[in-house]
């Protein structure tokens, strides 16, 4: 887990009109931020004296050199967000995306949108580090296998974002659950292939929510018994959607069993103990942890420390006791002196 | 397109309690149906004198031999639906799916559900034939590349079914649009890799509908101006979801541009002519064709012939004139003596 907690370096390149001050101020308390002209940045890359984790590239001034730089960043596997002037045609956006941009952003852009895009990229690159150790073995040429893993990851991540968008209180939930599950799975000793399957399965665990009525899913506050019964059908609906993916049966099983409990009082099938598939037991903890540490309409988020205590309290009833032990160890590592930690802190702390 | 219109052979194997009569009656006017005991069927397979397109396998009597047979069917790449007694535990269902079943079905089952599952499988196998010619080159051992294509296809098909489920009138819409698009693309001379990309893009063209409110999407009857404006945001929402799949940029472009018109009066960007990407122009025709030939709350479906005339009438205004010509040729081949043809007929006719 060496890289997970390392401070990220963000490069702001070719900025004009004060964007660099705005971005540097916004991101500085979460990451290291450095500001470069296109020319200086290019020479740093050329001499390999710099390897940022993310690059914001302003496309509004020196367009042709910006595109040259974009191509180099793509080759170097450095995720880049291109910043475009608002009101410009779609053609430039498409050129950026086909030229290798990870995402584009029209300026001015809201703080929450900038942070959302930044987190999405870091989630993805952290997953890649966790599973593929790409930061260690940087290779110029990506093999077909890597391409396919990346493609599957891109597809399932994108879809998970659209699943979460159904529910006003779960933005980024599936991405975080997938990240937490992968951390926990890695600590359990799963190999890379298993971690990838676990990650995919976790990204899709809530897909059954696509079938839930908006009125129930978006209801602020607590649900009635009737509404809770409707929500509790999402695991079987998810299972029915995913079971035709016979080449990855784990995806449907995680969707179906992530609300089962170790003591057999969960739903939909009341399985208990190790009859619940391992991946579903892992996702169950990650899911509960993220729900507790995220904001809901009727309560404030718990701190990581508080949520860790809740997980521990459910050892052997709701959760697999062995997995609870491992989770507690992991959570301890992310708690520093009673500070209220959040997902963003996990991404940015140097703990 | 040789296999597309060939009559399908369905084998009903090991049936008890009159299931075979029920299924044979239900399916007989669409496909050739033959009834076998497990033993007789096994020996036919063993001697390679039989190669059905789909197998219904009853798991309620001779369980252990049924599972042996299931393994052989998987090896032979013959899609199989296992029939389980209602009220039986989940364990048997999971064993069937992990043992190679394409799907399971609890008995008794409604006619519409049986037809839905049958069509889903035929859609998938027809796609494989169209693109990979698997019926011609049956190989015992599937290569990694085939596995990945199959996996991607399974994932995107499953998700497309869940997109369509959002809207009460679009069951199977994305699967049919993907099939029609692939037929049209093949006729345009696209190579296999392009056809696969086109197929994936078509499966996902309506993904932006996940973000639409139920009240609008499920409204029976015509939409108000305000509601139509909401629905018309689905291409950009779909584009935003899919644009992070940078390894397959076509997916996001088809989502964004499938409601553009050749004459520039479409939405969201008002592109015209060949500025609209080719795949989007193809999906646009397939999309309109399926909408016209499917039932809506406020009108009956058009016949293939009627829909073909409508497409022709929009040559050069809504649709690419060259693609309209090719489409008309294809549609002509599926029209027989004024009969009211449906999607099911395309699957089953020997035309």
From TrEMBL, chains A, B:
It comes from Butyrivibrio hungatei. The keyword Isomerase does not apply. Residues 148-343 form the HD-GYP domain. Gene3D superfamilies: Hypothetical protein af1432. This is HD family phosphohydrolase. Keywords: Plasmid.
């Amino acid at each position: 887990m060496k890289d997970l907690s390392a401070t990220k370096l963000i490069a702001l390149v070719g900025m004009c009109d004060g964007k660099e001050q705005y971005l540097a101020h916004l991101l500085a308390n979460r990451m290291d931020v450095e500001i470069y002209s296109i020319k200086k940045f290019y020479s740093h890359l050329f001499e390999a004296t710099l390897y940022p984790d993310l690059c914001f590239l302003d496309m509004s001034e020196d367009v042709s050199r910006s595109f040259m730089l974009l191509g180099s960043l793509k080759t170097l596997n450095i995720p880049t967000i291109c910043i475009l002037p608002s009101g410009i045609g779609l053609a430039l956006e498409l050129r950026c995306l086909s030229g290798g941009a990870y995402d584009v952003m029209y300026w001015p852009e809201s703080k929450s949108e900038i942070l959302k895009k930044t987190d999405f990229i870091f989630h993805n690159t952290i997953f890649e580090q966790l599973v593929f150790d790409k930061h260690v073995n940087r290779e110029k040429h990506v093999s077909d296998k890597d391409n396919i893993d990346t493609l599957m990851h891109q597809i399932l991540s994108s879809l998970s974002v659209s699943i979460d968008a159904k529910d006003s209180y779960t933005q980024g939930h599936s991405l975080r659950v997938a990240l937490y599950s992968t951390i926990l799975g890695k600590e359990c000793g799963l190999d890379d292939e298993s971690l990838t399957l676990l990650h995919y399965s976790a990204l899709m665990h809530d897909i059954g929510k696509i079938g839930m009525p908006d009125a129930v899913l978006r209801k602020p506050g607590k649900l009635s018994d009737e509404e809770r019964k409707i929500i509790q059908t999402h695991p079987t609906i998810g299972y029915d959607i995913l079971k035709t993916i016979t080449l990855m049966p784990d995806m449907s099983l995680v969707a179906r069993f992530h609300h089962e409990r170790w003591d057999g009082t969960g739903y939909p099938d009341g399985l208990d103990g190790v009859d619940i598939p391992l991946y579903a037991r892992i996702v169950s903890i990650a899911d509960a942890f993220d729900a507790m540490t995220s904001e809901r309409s009727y309560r404030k988020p718990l701190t990581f420390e508080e949520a860790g205590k809740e997980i521990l309290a459910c050892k052997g009833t709701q959760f697999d006791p062995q997995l609870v032990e491992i989770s507690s160890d992991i959570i301890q590592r992310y708690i520093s002196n009673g500070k209220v930690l959040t997902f963003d802190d996990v991404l940015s702390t140097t703990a």
